[in-house]
Design goal:
Blueprint: E1 2-5, H1 12-21, E2 26-30, H2 41-53, E3 57-61, H3 65-73, E4 77-79, H4 154-179, E5 182-189, E6 192-203, E7 215-232, E8 235-241, E9 244-251, E10 258-260, E11 265-267, E12 273-276, E13 280-282, E14 286-288, E15 291-293, E16 295-303, E17 315-319, H5 328-331, E18 332-340, E19 343-349, H6 352-377, E20 382-399, E21 407-422, H7 423-437, E22 441-456, E23 461-474, H8 478-485, H9 490-498, E24 503-511, E25 525-529
Parallel strand pairs: 1-2, 2-3, 3-4, 5-25, 6-7
Antiparallel strand pairs: 5-24, 6-23, 7-21, 8-19, 9-16, 9-18, 10-13, 11-12, 12-16, 14-15, 17-18, 20-21, 22-23
Helix pairs in contact: 1-2, 2-3
Length: 530
């Protein structure tokens, strides 16, 4: 059987938790004399009930007669450690097993235990030495030595029942308050004013703070964005626009690659000519089993003449006039997918004012988009100053050709750079500076502001001034304090608090107020530090 050693001041709630948490199903509760459990029989009723619910067999061992009596009253097996038999059971019994007549001729019936306060004596009464002492429990005794008749006093029986009920109720109330009691400690420390002003340096090439030189790590963040927007053209002009499109150029001639220069002509069967916008190299064909498998490349072409007649849907084969009269004429050709934009006549066109306004709008959209990405993408631990970020527009181009709705397009690209520092690094430096002036003290409150901010994006450095105003208090570990006072009386807790350095004021209170000890559970003790 597993033994559980109960402390004198350990309440019933703690004991029940220990019973439930044990893996063994057979347990021995070793309860010392003057245990708080002996204050009420309801404690043992609760232990018996909870043990039964979790299928645990509980035996109570104690030198305290009150504990043994309460345990037996709660139907728990109980033993005195000095009177154990060889099997580990108890030699104590609730039964008086003697047939000897006490003085006065009365014989106590075997198998009954008499309650001294509930027996009416006849013919001289009973000898104190012949009656086993123990708790009073109402019983029926009809005869003593066949002659003397002992009856229970009904009025006294009712009184005992009422008294036991009151004890159980009061015990339950006491246990409830004990189980749910709470404590609160309010500790106020003296405050020491502290202020500082200094020039800090953030560097992207360092990873640790340097309090002596006021250097903290910095990080450079970059972000790129591009956007294309349409704008209405407010002007009109006569235009001659050539259509454009894409062509796939095939090499079905040989396995050698073929270079085609810019402006190389491709001709449709009906004589329309399109020219390459850029130089291309057509890869060599694959020769497999003596057969040529054509290779291809895609390119952009522009119509040789303006006009809508060059806006074509698709042409399956275009020849290269430059190869006419040579074997390459049939070996190289193009396939046109679609060409658009050809126009001759008056149409909407952007004015210079339209173009300038469109460029400004695209720049504004890029800047707003980049700043939004910066705010949402950078970790919260970093602080970015307004003076430490910049947006650079790397490209902006205008397509003056308008669509059917009279709109022209503007394409823009931009890059954002920002240098950030962790405010926690700044606070760490300030804390080390304050600790140098006031050992074992920490910030109770601090207000930090920044000025004179200057960023060097090329070197990844950030200069800034720090102004700090606050107050310091003595370092105090709440966890260590809780472990020290849990389960102790209020006088002990107050003595611990009085020894705290830098203490200004303190108060310890219990709920309910009549308890003198703090809860053993740390979670039921609230510590407020001012």
């Amino acid at each position: 059987m597993k033994k559980i050693l109960v402390n004198k001041d350990e309440g019933v709630a703690e004991v029940v938790e220990r019973i439930i948490s044990e893996e063994d199903s057979n347990l021995v509760l070793v309860i010392p004399k003057d245990s708080v459990l002996a204050e009420s029989v309801s404690n043992f009723h609760l232990i018996g009930r909870e043990a039964l619910m979790v299928n645990k067999n509980v035996l109570v061992e104690s030198v305290d007669d009150q504990v043994l009596a309460f345990a037996k009253a709660s139907k728990l097996e109980a033993v005195h450690p000095l009177f154990k038999n060889k099997r580990g059971g108890s030699s104590l019994s609730d039964i008086v097993a003697t047939d000897e007549k006490p003085e006065g001729g009365a014989k106590i019936k075997k198998g009954r235990r008499l309650s001294r306060d509930l027996v009416e004596e006849e013919n001289g009464g009973l000898d104190d030495d012949k009656i086993e002492s123990g708790p009073d429990f109402p019983i029926d005794v009809n005869k003593v030595s066949g002659e003397k008749k002992i009856r229970l006093s009904r009025s006294r029986f009712k009184f005992v029942v009422i008294a036991i009920g009151i004890i159980i109720i009061l015990g339950g109330v006491f246990w409830s308050f004990s189980f749910f009691r709470k404590a609160e400690a309010i500790i106020t420390f003296e405050k020491t004013p502290w202020s500082y002003k200094g020039l800090f340096l953030g560097q992207s090439n360092v990873i640790e703070i340097n309090s002596a030189d006021l250097v903290v790590p910095a990080e450079v963040f970059t972000e790129e964005k591009n956007v294309t927007k349409l704008f209405p053209a407010s002007g009109r002009e006569n235009v001659s626009i050539k259509s454009t499109g894409k062509i796939v150029v095939y090499n079905a001639y040989s396995s050698d690659p073929q270079t085609l220069v810019a402006t190389t002509r491709f001709e449709t069967p009906d004589g329309k000519v399109f020219r390459l916008d850029n130089r291309i190299i057509v890869p060599g064909a694959e020769i497999k089993d003596g057969k040529i498998i054509p290779a291809s490349i895609e390119a952009v072409v522009t119509a040789d003449k303006p006009g809508e007649e060059y806006n074509l849907t698709s042409v399956s084969r275009l020849s290269i006039p430059g190869f006419k009269g040579s074997p390459k004429f049939n070996g190289f050709y193009g396939s046109l997918t679609e060409t658009t934009g050809g126009f001759v006549g008056e149409r909407a066109a952007p004015t210079a004012t339209d173009v300038d306004a469109a460029k400004e709008e695209v720049t504004r959209v890029l800047e707003a988009s980049l700043v939004g990405s910066l705010q949402s993408g950078i970790p919260e631990s970093f602080k970015i100053f307004d003076e430490a970020d910049r947006v650079t527009v790397t490209n902006i181009s205008v397509n003056r050709n308008t669509d059917e709705g009279g709109n022209f397009s503007v394409f823009g690209e931009a890059e954002l750079e920002a240098i950030g520092i962790r405010e926690s690094d700044v606070l760490m430096v300030l804390n080390e500076l304050a600790d140098g002036d006031h050992a074992d003290k920490v910030f109770n409150e601090i207000d930090v502001s920044y000025s004179d901010i200057s960023a060097d994006f090329e070197s990844g450095e950030l200069d800034f001034s720090v102004i700090a105003d606050g107050s310091l208090t003595q370092y105090f570990s709440v966890d260590d304090f809780l472990n020290e006072i849990a389960g102790k009386d209020t006088d002990y807790a107050r003595s611990i608090i009085e020894k705290l350095p830098g203490l200004a004021n303190a108060k310890v209170s219990l709920s309910p107020s009549w308890f003198s000890k703090l809860p053993s559970r740390i979670s039921r003790i609230k510590v407020i530090v001012n």
